Amino acid sequence: MAEPEPGPDPLPEDARLSTLDERLRRATSEEARRSGEGASASSEGYRLGNRVLAELIGGMVGGAVIGGTLDYFLGTSPWLLLVLLALGIVSAFRNIIRLSGKRPE
């Protein structure tokens, strides 16, 4: 039986290459996190849900506050409150419909 001919000894891995690989991996993951590429679908849904809730609350509270203030100063209680509250709700639903119709980026 012939023994395999001895070849050159394999070179040990250079420590500088392994640290460079680790630094590149870390920089790539930090860049992905910074640019938002690593965001999962569940976080997108969570963000959209928060936006919908903010639109609803903002529309209703904004309409009620402005309507109530105008009613107080103009003495038309409760008509402007009701009208502006309804307009706030309508604008909130319009914004929600517009948000839900957006294509994912």
UniProtKB/TrEMBL annotation:
Coiled-coil blocks: none
Taxonomic source organism: Sphingomonas spermidinifaciens
Entry function: A possible function for this protein is to guide the assembly of the membrane sector of the ATPase enzyme complex.
Keyword Transmembrane: yes
Assigned GO CC terms: proton-transporting ATP synthase complex
Keyword terms: Hydrogen ion transport, Ion transport, Membrane, Transmembrane, Transmembrane helix, Transport
Organismal lineage: Bacteria, Pseudomonadati, Pseudomonadota, Alphaproteobacteria, Sphingomonadales
UniProt protein name: ATP synthase protein I
Region forming the signal peptide: none
Biological process terms in GO annotation: proton transmembrane transport
Pfam families: ATPase_gene1
